[in-house]
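Hello Y.,

Per our agreement to keep a running log of every chain we model this quarter, I'm adding this entry. I've kept the format consistent with earlier entries: sequence first, then predicted structure.
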Amino acid sequence: MSDLQIIHDSHREVYRRPFGAVCCGTEIQLKLASLTDDPIDQVWLLLQVEGGPVNKLPMQQEKQAGGYSVYLAETRVTEEPGLLWYCFEIHAAGQLYYYGNNSNRFGGVGVLSRTLPPFYQITVYDEKAVTPVWYKKAVMYQIFVDRFCNGSDDGKVLNPKKNSFIYGNWADKPVYLKDPETGGILRWDFFGGNLQGVISKLPYLKELGVDVLYLNPIFEAPSNHKYDTGDYKKIDAMFGDIALFGTLCAKAREMGISVILDGVFSHTGSDSIYFNRYGNYPGIGAYQSQSSPYYGWYRFCGNPDSYECWWGINTLPNVEEMNPSYIDFVITGEESVIKYWMKQGAKGWRLDVADELPDAFITLVRQAMKETDPESVLIGEVWEDASNKISYGKRRSYLQGSGLDSVMNYPFRSILLDFFLYKHDAAFTETALASLYENYPPYSFYSSMNLIGSHDVPRVLTLLGEAPDESAMTQRRKEQYVLPDSQRNLAVARLKLAVLIQMTFPGVPCVYYGDEAGVEGYRDPLNRSTYPWGAEDKDLLAWYRLLIATRKRHDALSVGSWQPVFSRGDVLGYLRRIVNQQDVFGNTADNGTFLILINRSQDKRHGIRIDLPGLKVYGMRNLLADAQHIPILDQAVEISLEPLEGALYRME
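Predicted structure for the entry above:
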């Protein structure tokens, strides 16, 4: 390789302006710098609109001083939403070089190579795309209804299903009763949580600081998880009825809490009014006859017993989402599923397995929702970077303006876990977070559902406590496993730091029920244990309350700008700011500048110096400790962080 020293850093506006995703038709500047005096003959910008040819634009030498050269290209992005890709071609001393994205494809500083590298990404979105202001400032709470609270006066389980297993003690560990040969569920197990239980705990949720309740599916279905929908128009009788749902929404609204429902529209249950494989519903289902009004909803392969299923599970037959009858029933009809439940009080929807729903289907859902309530919110289950996600060979357009308002931010969760479990250092963590900041349009970045736990992953305490790998454990051993005290203490300390980041990072933090109370557990079904009413980890719960309250008191922690300021080894630091009383969207907000610092080390005290050029601040106070005033001299501050310490400083 040549001695050429070339740099382009897409995370810095000096190299790419404006930073990050841009709306259609925006003028952009891209710069490449040569840090040596090696002669360069020509520099080209290679630019490609997704799916189109690569265009070569000559770059102009902007300035040269002391061996430092800068090459500039200016262009206007496409008028249509989509992805734009670029890298650089350099001709020097008769040789051809390329400069492009790094191997992680995280943006930021790239690499010089002799072969064509990965391209940098620019997300182009519709300028009319917005998400509700109220949602960007919200804190969400996810509830798996059967495991949250039984609100019945007598404590009995409502309307137990035939052939079901009912636990005798709320504190029992959940287990699956499976057929040893097929692995299928022999009997579904229930604890008896219901909507009345959610209503009874609204004061608890209000005190915690919750603004949005995300309920796992509540419609009629045979299972405890309800992802095998039996009837989209009925509340499962074990949870309550439509009147009780209306009461929940009304009482929640009185407390400033909105309700988001889980929409499972890529498949139904085989035991449903629509498929009716077992004849448990009146009328003729698709399984029973081709004359069924629902037959066209499904994908049969020659005979009733051969049909396409979700991940091969025969109790979850896939649907043909773009079937006109299905679209009318779920989305566009006057009494469609989407509209019906919003009229009953729902403020939005979370779309299960959004990857398996066509973009056109998602667009129609969005349109129906916004027509019913412009302030409603549409969230998608996406496990990867949603800006460039490819599913079934197709690039998805979730975040380009006509699709989702928000996605479940599983990358955020993975980045945090990898940091605290020493898989990556602070520098890698900063770059990974900055990649999401760069790729997501601002409206979706600040609306991302920033989760640490969910019903589909092991409990965060179990992971942060470095529990044994469950793949080598028997089911019985997993059920019995509890973190030893030393590992539990480490897990709680790490979780506190992770929650500090969660509550001070752009996006909508989501708390999975019981995480705030210290619940442990491996993956499904053990991650769906009951909420431990009366046996909560009081210290951890107090920490959640403190951080949520702090977030809600200061607009900068939700809708302020995000600026990394320190990332070295064990220590991660960033600023959240609002200046001139305007947030990043131009809305009126309280001024404020906050510095967040995290030391993940278990045994090392770190003293660090942070330069703060351009900030007109003279001191700061830690809102999580004694609030002692720390002076800022010569636009820099020196701070000492104890092992496993986090700090939230307000600048003064």
